[in-house]
């Protein structure tokens, strides 16, 4: 398992990989960490691309991802990858797009369990009425990410 960290405007992001793919991103308000000097290339690429994203220079990610979840969760997360930079969709839009139009709540649960936030852009999913709802790291972080993409 490979682990690395970057300091961002929303906190310290920890990213975890399995030797070839990113498997998890996590966010900490304040975390003391020691930087590993011998990081594999895929981790260095993730670090670089996240820093470019936060500086406004990157709108899409080109990384190998391997989130762990149920078949339903993976289907939802794959749908999240289709949401363009700077755009938002509702939970019901996602439910319709995956062929489960009555599964908005289940979609919400899957979005909330997304292990690779930002790269799999769960922050781009909002309430049907346009309200900011449901972000595991707090609505202030979701609002920051959406404003960054405007």
Automatic annotation (TrEMBL):
The protein's UniProt keywords, in alphabetical order, are: Cytoplasm, DNA damage, DNA repair, Methyltransferase, Transferase
InterPro entries for this protein? MethylDNA_cys_MeTrfase_AS, MethylDNA_cys_MeTrfase_DNA-bd, MethylDNA_cys_MeTrfase_DNAb, MethylG_MeTrfase_N, MGMT, MGMT_N_sf, WH-like_DNA-bd_sf
List of catalytic residues: 122 (nucleophile)
**Superkingdom, taxonomy of origin:** Bacteria
Pfam families this protein is in?
DNA_binding_1, Methyltransf_1N
Domain Methylguanine DNA methyltransferase ribonuclease-like: from-to ranges: 4-67
Q: Listed GO cellular component terms? A: cytoplasm
GO terms for biological process, alphabetical: DNA alkylation repair; methylation
This enzyme's EC code(s): 2.1.1.63
Where does it localize? Cytoplasm
Q: Which family does it belong to?
A: Belongs to the MGMT family.
Q: What else is known?
A: This enzyme catalyzes only one turnover and therefore is not strictly catalytic. According to one definition, an enzyme is a biocatalyst that acts repeatedly and over many reaction cycles.
- What the protein does? Involved in the cellular defense against the biological effects of O6-methylguanine (O6-MeG) and O4-methylthymine (O4-MeT) in DNA. Repairs the methylated nucleobase in DNA by stoichiometrically transferring the methyl group to a cysteine residue in the enzyme. This is a suicide reaction: the enzyme is irreversibly inactivated.
Q: What is this protein called?
A: Methylated-DNA--protein-cysteine methyltransferase
Taxonomic placement: Bacteria, Bacillati, Bacillota, Clostridia, Lachnospirales
């Amino acid at each position: 398992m490979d682990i690395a960290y970057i300091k961002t405007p929303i906190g310290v992001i920890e990213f975890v990989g399995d030797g070839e793919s990113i498997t998890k991103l996590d966010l900490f308000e304040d975390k003391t960490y020691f930087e590993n000097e011998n990081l594999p290339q895929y981790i260095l690429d993730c670090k670089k691309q996240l820093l470019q994203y936060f500086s406004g220079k990157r709108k899409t990610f080109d990384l190998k991802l391997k989130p762990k979840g149920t078949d339903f969760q993976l289907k939802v997360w794959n749908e999240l990858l289709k949401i363009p930079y700077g755009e938002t969709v509702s939970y019901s839009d996602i439910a319709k797009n995956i062929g489960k139009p009555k599964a908005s709540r289940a979609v919400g649960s899957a979005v909330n369990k997304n292990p690779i936030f930002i790269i799999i852009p769960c922050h781009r999913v909002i309430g049907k009425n346009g309200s900011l709802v449901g972000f595991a790291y707090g609505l202030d972080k979701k609002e920051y990410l959406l404003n960054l993409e405007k």
